[in-house]
Amino acid sequence: MGNFGQLMDGFAVALTAHHVLIMIVGVLLGLVVGVLPGLGAPNGVSLLLPLTFTMDPISAIILLTSMYWGALFGGSTTSILFNIPGEPSSVATTFDGYPMAKQGQAVRALSLAFSSAGIGALTGVIVITLLSGWVAQFAMRFGAAEYFAVYFMAFASFIGMAGGSPFKTLVAMMLGFAAATVGMDTISGESRLTFEFDELIGGISFLIAVIGLFGLGELLLTMEEGLKFEGVKAKLDLRTIFRTVAEVPRYWATLVRSALIGCWMGITPGGPTAASFMSYALGRRFSRRGRHFGKGEPEGIIAPETADHSAGSCALLPMLALGIPGSATSAVMMGGLMIWGLSPGPMLFTTQPDFVWGLIASMYMGNIIAVVLVLATVPLFAYILKAPFTVVGPMITVVCVIGAYTVASHTFDIWLALLFGLAGYVFKKLDYPLAPFVLAMVLGDKAEDAFRQAMLTSDGSPAIFFSNGLVSTMMGLGIFLLLLPAITALAGRIRSGAHKAEAA
Fold first, then answer.
1. Which Pfam family name is an example for this entry (predicted)?
2. What residue ranges do the domains of the chain occupy?
3. How much is the mean pLDDT over the chain?
4. pTM
């Protein structure tokens, strides 16, 4: 009941007229961010972050999380109406959402997506409510070795659970580590990889990297592909909406399975994108109508949307309780907490309970507001997306440049953002994932500090990483995840050899 009582206190903090207004504004901004290709939740939150410096931390984090929910819903809108995923995690929604919309069932497709997304997000928030206190108490047992083991397990999870090439994931992560080492060493005080640029002594701001990678990089790719905004018309039909919402519980098995996948992938570093693809694949495998997936099947919308939003919610739990973001957006938010003078981790629940539980309470309200607003604004965004890319593209570019300059008011940061934009373009052209790069850039220096502190404590003996059951388990799991792609490939070769032997 302790968590329930604290949650009620959190509602007392969140349910003020000021904070409800902030939620509405944040959701609307997030919808715009999610709808416009080239932006997205990580870039949108990073652009908004400098504007929150004058706000109190609770109001600031409520604004950012509300934008996050809105961006997730906005990405689903364009996936269904225009076959343009506004968010990477919305790609799987296009497989059945757009075919259903082309069949004249756009409102039904949107209603399926938003209702299942709301259920997924609510499940994720409930998981955060139930587990946050336990995770915080458990984390009190952590020392330098345990923290490094958690970071190692996080990095290994991205490699072991990579949806694409583990090698590309590893390369992206190594580049992120390199970017994290730029600037002054926190232990020795020496400058590293500054190349005699005084502006790099303070390091590379992850905000600059995110604006370039996710914003400008996507714009460059969009211009090359000559994207045209051609969508289907959607009118707000209340009877269809109510009928579709009542239909969703029939797919309870898909909802439960997808929510569990999303919660797991959110708490671990898998993230919403991996969760949505995994849930779609499992949904097609276990559905009785699996052969109809890709042709406008309702389960093909419900599965990725539920997993996407439950993962997006749960990604905030490791960020708050352990200081480890479960997604690129939560990594950006974690940087915001540090800027506001808050240290994510177990002590945050003890020292700032009003902040933590006010945030959790706002998640419940924010998702409800997002569902209502996104249904009401579908025709509006359909109209906006009829604007030519020659108008939308320059607007996004201006927003990115202003955001990069706002971080520290340095012209050098604009050039740095452009450089990261080119890097983002190359990443996407070569199909290298961006999330591992951002994760490594945010956590690289923390992992390095934890490793060096642990080694100093043990007089240079690596045995400290296997000195007790907790750290040994996490290191062992991390090593297993790191080797998982090789184990899977070896098992596949053995099965293939066995089939060939049987055939002979």
1. TctA
2. 2-503
3. 76
4. 0.64
